[in-house]
């Protein structure tokens, strides 16, 4: 249920992922890790340090990593493979489609350093298309936690409780860590973060924090905004989206990803087929990123609380024009 | 067909454990011929598919399933079984015919190949629950990685089962094969044996003209593999080569099996036009007659 959210201190979601892998590995000895050279920077070092005999180094060869993961899973292991999302989700898409998804094996693919907030590395390393690509693959579950605490919980759950292929998206940047250790959370179920009646803001990843900031400011302007965290993008929680569409009549989505095909599109697919209401989307508008400091880039590319507020005003105008 | 089945398959468990392999060359040759004829019949029934490569591999599959591999058609998921990864999914007909003959399912089902609702997909698909099928595959270059994953799992669990994988020579043009090759040697996976179907032909023509892969043995050697080469259509030679490969310690083995596309049907042997084609009714009768005459 609704909570007051306070930032406990900035923490990268990759760290939560790494802690989740370790927690799962401590409970199930079939969990194995696959490394493609950048083990520490994607948070897999916790696992590697504790279980070196269950860690397999395969070098900078991501396509092979995914195929090997499929072979391990077919033989009873639960492989976790993580590298930068641009490589783990995109260089390897055919291997994920056939060796993992078509075989419907329980392989956990971690997409680290996702989004434009990777910053100075520039466009080559900023994954802005991974959600779109992963969510069209049959059998795939797509998870995008909102902070490090949630990343840890969902990673552990995804490894231990799910059966098929899983894509977990997380970032490198230190972002607010605000959800509770003992939060009630279920894969496939959206989280109502804040009640509201005029407009619903649906966000994924660390933009959930931005959405909460936006809702607070909107409240001061007399606008009651509902905030929903969609941490499982596929299968998506249709019920929470349809209810929000019915009750608030306007939706703004927010993601650190291309608008085309991404999280906003996933929400819109549910809305137009069930309860058509105006939808506005905060995200990257069909272009590549660039080098810069994360906060600079978030502003330049329109991914802040201010941008969410702007889209809320736009969608409310459309909502009232229709009426 | 049915008398053979009765003769060999009345006690499948007894026959197919490693220690009860069929060692008689004449019996194995007869089985390979039967598999070839069923490949032809299943392709005629489907009206499409890859005939040449499937026929060329009939001897390799006969040797693997009737002589080398430890497996149990009555218990397809027996954890101790040897695994067969077919990386070149387009030659599925030879896998299906062999699985049927070993007793995983009835031979009559072979005539459902590539038809809607069939367990015998054009390229193998595990979602259709065909007993004995280890992997959905068909996008070239992926199977060796999966084999590496399986071999790693066996090593981690201190299990003795082996992984055999079958690849095309044209498939070796895929870069991911060499990523997998590097990793198998790095992890000293002596429990896996890759078989290259070296028929020198791919869809556009000769492998040497489309994209040369030679010097092939040297490539594998330099990647840290133990390399064997043999006549892939000679059953005794295949058996002795597998015996040697299985004894290799500390590194993976590859067998470059020189095969003839369309082997067994004289009139189409070596003809790349039969790579991806199915025979019509009169061709089917003609091809089966040629196999009987051999």
Count of all domains of chain A: 2
Query: What is the CATH homology-level superfamily of the largest domain in chain A?
Result: Thiamin diphosphate (ThDP)-binding fold, Pyr/PP domains
In whole angstroms, how far apart are the ends of chain B? 17 Å
Shape verdict of chain B: globular
CATH topology of the largest domain in chain A: Rossmann fold
Please give the most extensive interface between any two protein chains, plus how many residues each contributes: A-B, 30 and 34 residues
Classification by helices and strands of chain B? alpha/beta
Number of helices of chain B: 12
Q: pLDDT under 50 segments of chain B (min length 5)?
A: 1-19
Helix proportion of chain A: 40-55%
Coarse morphology of chain A: globular
- Give the helix/strand class of chain A: alpha/beta
Mean pLDDT of chain A comes to 97
Helix content, binned percent of chain B: 40-55%
Q: Given the structure, what is the number of helices of chain A?
A: 12
Q: What's the CATH H-level superfamily name of chain B?
A: Thiamin diphosphate (ThDP)-binding fold, Pyr/PP domains
CATH architecture of the largest domain in chain A: 3-Layer(aba) Sandwich
Overall description:
The complex is a heterodimer of chains A (323) and B (294). Chain A has 323 residues and is α/β, with parallel strands linked by helices. Chain A folds into two domains: 11-175, Rossmann fold (3-Layer(aba) Sandwich); 191-322, Rossmann fold (3-Layer(aba) Sandwich), CATH 3.40.50.920. Chain A has helices spanning 13-27, 45-50, 62-74, 85-91, 93-102, 130-135, 148-161, 207-220, 238-248, 263-274, 294-300, 305-322, and strands spanning 11-12, 31-35, 55-57, 78-84, 108-112, 141-143, 166-169, 174-175, 191-194, 199-203, 225-229, 232-234, 251-258, 279-284. In chain A, the strands form three sheets. Chain A has a seven-stranded mixed beta sheet, sandwiched between helices. Chain A has a five-stranded mixed beta sheet with strand order 9-11-10-13-14, with helices on both faces. The model of chain A has no long low-confidence stretch (mean pLDDT 97). Chain B is globular, with a radius of gyration of 18 Å. In chain B, the strands form two sheets. Chain B has a five-stranded parallel beta sheet, sandwiched between helices. Chain B has a two-stranded antiparallel sheet with strand order 4-5. By secondary structure, chain B is α/β, with parallel strands linked by helices. Chain B has one domain: Rossmann fold. In chain B, 43% of the residues lie in helices and 11% in strands. Chain B is built from twelve helices and seven strands. Chain B has helices at residues 2-9, 12-16, 25-46, 51-56, 58-68, 92-102, 143-156, 175-186, 207-210, 216-222, 235-246, 281-293; strands at 83-86, 163-168, 192-198, 201-202, 205-206, 226-231, 253-258. At the A-B interface, helix 3 and helix 5 of A face helix 7 and helix 8 of B.
